[in-house]
Fold this protein.
Amino acid sequence: MEFLHRPVLLEPTVKALTDPHFGGKSRVGQEEGDTRTRLSGIFVDGTFGRGGHSRLLLSKLASDARLVVFDKDPEAIAHAQVLQAEDSRVQVVHDGFASMAQQLQALGIAQVDGVMLDLGISSPQIDDASRGFSFMHEGPLDMRMDTSRGPTAAQWLADASVEEIKEVIAKYGEERFAFQIAKALVARRESGPLRTTLDLAELVASVVRTREKGKHPATRTFQALRIYLNQELEELAFTLATVLKVLAPKGRLAVISFHSLEDRMVKQCIAAAANPAAVHARLPIFEKDLPQPILYSLGRVLPSEDEVAGNARARSAVLRVAQRTQTPLPPDQGASFVKAVSLAPKLAAHARRRQK
Ligand SMILES: C[S@@+](CC[C@H](N)C(=O)[O-])C[C@H]1O[C@@H](n2cnc3c(N)ncnc32)[C@H](O)[C@@H]1O
């Protein structure tokens, strides 16, 4: 069965990468004179999915442009390979976008003119019950975007401790009942392992006592496990820290987030790169010696009412766009974001434990 994905914020995202005048007023007082066309450049789609954004971008790019597309998901990659066979400007990489700098280097690309990230999961991943992402459809408890590596949700839940489960559900699901859910999950092991999405959804529903309007009680738990198992925030933090190394001067970054944990990270990263002097404002140094912005924001775009009415996934979407300045990167740029990486080492430790 073919599952479809309806791209969110499609036109503004592609404009963000291709229109020199994107951002209008927010650019006043910033670097002037950006009239060059970027349509012959090198671009990256870090989250190919079913290629909605990639296809529209390609339709705007010149015949000598290049587009390197990434996805963790083997099914998305199969779709990307079909596009690659049709369009010689496309190159496909089956890997997380956090490997972007390294993978581009392997392709002989030092810098790119635009990077877009459309975060989270695609509709096909949710709608295909066999992927185990949905509490609405019975399926194996998997939840991996990259089905070729890493523990499934069922494997992780089979031997994580109450403390580990609680931490994940509280941190990535912002779930008030994280401890009660974790305790119930560990107790449930005595009657056999959790195997399916509905096993998990029912167990969580039996423990979560307050009901959020329009939300299944297991929404937060499913979100948390998915984010953790796929290391979504760690990959985003690492990528935000390193993407500046691959963006050429005047190159653009466009990121679509779907929840506040992601959007906060994107917003803070852009703000820190746009206002590095703020950190040093009270120090006795001359203005000319203050660190200069390495990015500036081109603003935020939300979906229109029409888009939200036609596509429920768009409801929580936020697009943030920034442009690289000419300032060379300070050596430690982005280090603080990588330090913010939190639970990933625990997942690695868990994987090692399972191998023993
Ligand atoms: C929202 S969908 C993208 C949809 C796409 N823009 C389109 O128009 O079809 C997100 C995709 O990004 C992939 N993905 C999520 N995180 C990733 C990561 N860290 N690295 C690579 N791919 C990732 C998912 O597997 C999924 O296919």
Notes: The longest strand covers residues 247-257. Residues 5, 7, 46-47, 49-53, 70-73, 76, 96-98, 118, 120-122, 145, 235 surround S-adenosylmethionine (CB under 6 Å). The radius of gyration is 21 Å. The longest helix spans residues 232-246.
